[in-house]
Amino acid sequence: MVENIIGAGRQVLAEYGYAGASTSRITATAGISPGSLYQYFPHKDANVLAVLERYSDTLVSHVTTRMSGQFAQPAPVIVRTTVAALLDGLDVEPPLLRAAVEDGPRLDDGRALRAFEQRIGELVLAYLTTRGRGLRPDTPLDTAVWMLVRTVEHLTVRYLLDRPPIPRDQFTEELTRLVLNYLRPPS
């Protein structure tokens, strides 16, 4: 039942956005009564948060899967792979991405976003710890991870929401170059 309700919430959120996602639409899509919905989710925001948490978990799993086994690769390969994985994972349902970016932080004070950034940051830290010798020795790792995760996240999200006239391959290469230049030791 919970899976059915979360799936319906996802479908409604993607189709109508947060403002148009009502409990009546969610119950109609799920094929259940309002009482059944309220048994598991006391209000619309609780359902939307469950949808966004599931979306975040799926995205982290997608990026983790794509990065696993890549740690032996040189920095340009792992950065390009990570950017491509993030683009692919975020671009599955652009309306859902918009809802996650615009409404998610307001609903839970940004906890889901911070949890996502933390989990991706752990992957970046693991890579930099094992393979980042010689990269940015002047910058503490926690600072570099924070900067990298938020830069890549922000630019990727804006690219997908704004849809600028930049081919995806070019965007991936430019963002990879930006990250690699940040990681390069100062001359």
Automatic annotation (TrEMBL):
Keyword ATP-binding carried by entry: no
Ranges annotated as DNA-binding: 22-41
Alphabetical keyword list: DNA-binding
HTH tetR-type domain mapped to chain residues: 1-59
InterPro entries for this protein: Homeodomain-like_sf, HTH-type_TetR-like_transc_reg, HTH_TetR, TetR_C_15
Chain segments annotated as transmembrane: none
One Pfam family hit: TetR_C_15
PANTHER family the UniProt entry points to: HTH-TYPE TRANSCRIPTIONAL REGULATOR RUTR (PTHR30055), HTH-TYPE TRANSCRIPTIONAL REGULATOR UIDR (PTHR30055:SF223)
Name assigned to this protein: TetR/AcrR family transcriptional regulator
